[in-house]
Design a protein that fits this description.
73% helix
Length: 264
């Protein structure tokens, strides 16, 4: 086994774990917001919460390393098609989604580093990937295009859950998979719904020429859920689903098969 293959595997698994930490904080605070004991948090807010804890800087450094590994793995998945998504429309959508994911977590890692004082620039100097793209194009059509990508990513999550495609990438015995199946199913559905909501918000803001201001994030998605009829109940369900997605991420850190072609 090539040494660099092993290194990539460790970095990828650390990345899944770091993603789990971020979503665990988001899910827990969504549950707290539902019962009136907190407010919904975005991914950046989640990292700020980690930073505020005892030994927060040390934890952030570890998370940044994990997020960097996750970005590298997403790029490898997208460029080399390690999971065999192919060149169909569905495969292309998934691989574009992987690139978007890499960009999002790269900016998240940079944000965390700036908050911890590791990089130059203020805490707010790093915008989201969507904001960077939108600023580069300066057109509401960019928001609509990104909304289509997010909708495709959401659909891919739901498809992966319903068709149990996640199991194709797990090296776990049957008993372990019986335990992981409900966690993966609910967690993936919940995250897919988040992407659907973000897609809707981007379409709305694109059609209104961005009058609401800013690019929506997962915190905005949770606030939108809370604003709906029976919002408290829905937010509890979404928060629980996001927590389960965090557990799914932790399980990927343990059992996820990291496919690497010999050419990588």
């Amino acid at each position: 086994m090539n040494l660099h293959h092993n290194t990539i595997r460790y970095l990828a698994k650390a990345g899944y774990f770091s993603r789990g930490v971020v979503y665990l904080v988001i899910g827990v605070f969504a549950l707290l917001a539902a019962i009136g004991s907190g407010e919904n948090k975005s991914a950046k807010d989640a990292l700020s919460t980690v930073l505020s804890q005892p030994f927060g800087t040390v934890m952030i450094v570890v998370l940044i390393a994990g997020l960097a590994g996750y970005v590298l793995w997403r790029l490898i998945q997208a460029i080399f098609d390690t999971d065999g998504h192919g060149r169909t429309l569905k495969g292309f959508t998934i691989r574009v989604g992987l690139l978007v994911s890499a960009g999002t977590y790269a900016t998240l890692a940079l944000y965390a580093g700036s908050r911890a004082g590791l990089f130059s620039g203020g805490a707010d100097s790093q915008g989201s990937t969507a904001e960077f793209i939108a600023a580069s194009v300066g057109d509401s059509w960019m928001a609509l295009g990104l909304a289509a990508i997010l909708f495709g990513i959401g659909a891919a999550h739901v498809w992966k859950a319903v068709r149990r495609k996640y199991a194709d990438h797990f090296d776990a015995d049957r008993q372990t998979m019986r335990f992981l199946d409900p966690i993966a199913f609910i967690g993936l559905i919940a995250r897919g719904l988040v992407f659907f909501i973000l897609s809707f918000l981007l379409v709305y803001r694109g059609l209104t020429a961005g009058e609401d201001g800013g690019t929506p994030d997962i915190g905005d998605a949770m606030n939108f859920v809370e604003s709906l009829p029976f919002g408290t109940t829905l937010l509890i369900a979404m928060g629980a689903g996001i927590v389960l997605f965090a557990l799914y991420s932790f399980s990927e850190a343990i059992w996820r098969r990291i496919n690497l072609h010999a050419s990588i």
